[in-house]
Amino acid sequence: MTVPVTTELAAGVLTISFARPEKKNALTDAMYGVVADALEDAMTNEAVRVVLFRGEGDSFSAGNDIGDFVAAAMGNPAGMNVFRVLKGLAHFDKPIVAAVKGSAVGIGTTMLLNADMVFVAEDARLSTPFVNLALAPEAASSILLPARIGHVRAFSMFALGEVVSGKDAAAWGLANKALPAGEVDSAAAHAAAELAKRAPKSLQLTKRLMRDGAALWAHMEEENKAFGGQLSSPEAREAFTAFAERRAPDFSKVS
């Protein structure tokens, strides 16, 4: 079966496209596997100077496929490719650019915190509704998001699932620019192409000095423990059951 992620290398830019538009590019374990393989190869492939993430259709990504979450909550976890992606993002020392249109939910937003340049549609919708699903933040977002936008804004995004518009995302420092949706892909592609022309070693050294990949991965591992513990909890089972039944979860009956 074809995995709905495409990769294309041209002029030093590796474009990774989520290609499941009928599901708003919700990410499955198999999709994470393709992304992880691409990042691992790009780390040592001198032909790759920049990575560009984008989504097909009208959304960047609806986050992790809810079916995988439900399976894990019921004791049938999917593979662990998401952790390979997170580790890859933490240690990746080449520039990452992202083009974001429509919805960017969960990891669709948190991965942007591990990018170096982000271009969003003005009407994009960024959210990190982990508490709504009785889960915990990931991708080092529990430290990266408050560092970027402040504790109170980050807490509202995490705890209340507050949706942030593309315009606000740019104003708050989550993105370089907010643009009309039709201009996002071209702006991100242009930025990636310009980065690919720069001295690659200089770019890598600059990025390494700006972020501590080992420390980020160590924090991600702590998040992963919390996330994994919650995923099999009664709270999460109630949240996923409520989601499937299209009702609000009732955590009062969860001890």
Please give the CATH architecture of the domain at 5-180: Alpha-Beta Complex
State the assembly state of the protein chains: single chain
Q: How much strand content do the residues show?
A: 15-25%
Averaged pLDDT: 95
CATH superfamily of the domain at 5-180: 2-enoyl-CoA Hydratase, Chain A, domain 1
Q: What is the level 1 CATH name of the domain at 5-180?
A: Alpha Beta
Uncertain stretches: none
Summarize the amount of helix as a percent range: 40-55%
Terminal residue distance: 42 Å
Task: Name the shape in a single word.
Answer: globular
* H/I helix tally: 11
CATH topology-level name of the domain at 5-180: 2-enoyl-CoA Hydratase, Chain A, domain 1
Structural class: alpha/beta
Strand arrangement, largest sheet?
A: 1-2-3-4-6-9
What key attributes describe this structure?
255 residues; 2-enoyl-CoA Hydratase, Chain A, domain 1; 11 helices; three-stranded mixed sheet; alpha/beta; six-stranded mixed sheet
Q: What would your notes on this structure say?
A:
This protein is α/β, with parallel strands linked by helices and 255 residues long. The protein has a domain at 5-180: 2-enoyl-CoA Hydratase, Chain A, domain 1 (Alpha-Beta Complex). It is 48% helix and 15% strand. It has helices at 29-44, 66-73, 81-91, 107-110, 141-149, 151-160, 166-172, 181-197, 200-210, 213-231, 234-244, and strands spanning 5-10, 13-18, 50-55, 96-100, 103-105, 117-121, 125-127, 164-165, 177-179. It has a 6-stranded mixed beta sheet with strand order 1-2-3-4-6-9, sandwiched between helices. The protein has a 3-stranded mixed beta sheet with strand order 5-7-8. Helix 3 packs antiparallel against helix 10 (213-231).
